[in-house]
Amino acid sequence: MVFKQYLDPWLGCFSNDPPWSGIPGRLLTGLPESPEEMNISFSLYTRETGNNSQVISAINSSTIQNSHFSPRRRTSFIIHGFSSTGKKGWVVEMCLLLLEVENMNCIAVDWKEGAKGTYVCAVNNIRVIGAEVAYFIETLQKLFRYSPREIHLIGHSLGAHTAGEAGRRVRGIRRISGLDPAGPYFEGTPAEVRLDPTDANFVDVIHSNAAHFPATGFGMYNTTGHLDFYPNGGTLMPGCNDLLLEMKRIGIWDCHHSRSHEFYFKSILYHTGFLGYPCETYEDFKSVNCFPCPKQGCPMMGHYADKFPYKLKRVNQKYFLNTAADPPFASKCRTSVTVIHVGKVIALGNTKEYEIASGVLSGDKVYTKYLDVEIDPQKTKKVEFLWNKTIFTLLWARMGAESVNIIHGEDGRWTRYCSLDRKRSVPIQNSE
């Protein structure tokens, strides 16, 4: 392999020396394109701009000084990935939603021209995009003495590693959120070329399309932050199996890959809807070896992950959760429901029925089921016991539940509901 260099007057020198290429898993060729070829732009959204934006430039710094950028507010940069854009779609929608919940500066980074070629070319290009973001941050430091501790980088796919490159160049960035960081040419590579926990004071990651054998995907499976979240196991997302839905998207995996920024978007609105449980594997999580939360609590996946007091306890902390298949995707709580003396279906609240047991049921037996419910069990006033007869059930047979115990996964609290009767359908009152 011939090693070459590319020199940019503003950003410095880029080479294809190892580890950028020529190492196992990263046998790339070529160098990044120039910022001019990629037509990189930064669009500022604030509460003053409304649904519009102001194009600002670090090279022409007067555009920043004459804009609505305020050094008294925090700043988020939103960075798209391969075959995407920062001029419309989820990037702009994310900025506008963030502004609804916080008075801030939100900057949408567009590098569409550099992201629309081959994937290998786009992989090379993110080094220049990351350098441009870093140069922009350095310009803010010079203009306003603006601290990197006020900056949050949110990147999807290749945009996640772009954020990592910016964080490698500018130390002390407050937070980077990696939304399904791209896997090909990054999985198993040195930390220098991908997002890693040293790129910001706090790095949180959502894995939604992890390429974990035997499945394939666009995302990374290995941990790459302080808190790594694996919703639904991190590889295949519920609700992405609709054929018509897939045909509308770029490729069969795009729905799963895009779920990461959709989860993050909804997490801004649903503060407590994405509770993650510490676990080593999804299999352990499904077998409820990680239930309920430990004494130190559990973090929320997404926008409010930084509220977790133990987020910096160590790097590569793994958390699992299940989500709903449809928007808003949130699950209120993971709950353990135990029916004392025979159970079939328990209706929590009046929104949905949850199956506890099926098949041949016997009396004087305890049935337990772990559920990811879409309501808050702590607000439940009554639990209704239901069961269905089959053609083999004796006509005079009756069943009921003596009591129902519910353990809340977030804090380990438990509530007991005692039966007032043992008829076919029984309201079970709370006796906590």
UniProtKB/TrEMBL annotation:
UniProt KW Acyltransferase keyword: no
Catalysed transformations (reactions): a triacylglycerol + H2O = a diacylglycerol + a fatty acid + H(+)
CDD domains assigned to the protein according to its UniProt record, in alphabetical order: Pancreat_lipase_like
InterPro entries assigned: AB_hydrolase_fold, Lipase, Lipase_LIPH, Lipase_N, Lipase_panc, PLAT/LH2_dom_sf, TAG_lipase
One example of a Gene Ontology biological process annotation: lipid catabolic process
Subcellular location: Secreted
Record organism: Pavo cristatus (Indian peafowl)
EC number, as in UniProt: 3.1.1.3
Pfam short name (any one): Lipase
Family listed: Belongs to the AB hydrolase superfamily. Lipase family.
GO cellular component terms, A-Z: extracellular region
PANTHER family given in the database record: LIPASE (PTHR11610), PANCREATIC LIPASE-RELATED PROTEIN 3 (PTHR11610:SF100)
Protein name: Triacylglycerol lipase
Keywords: Calcium, Disulfide bond, Lipid degradation, Lipid metabolism, Metal-binding, Secreted
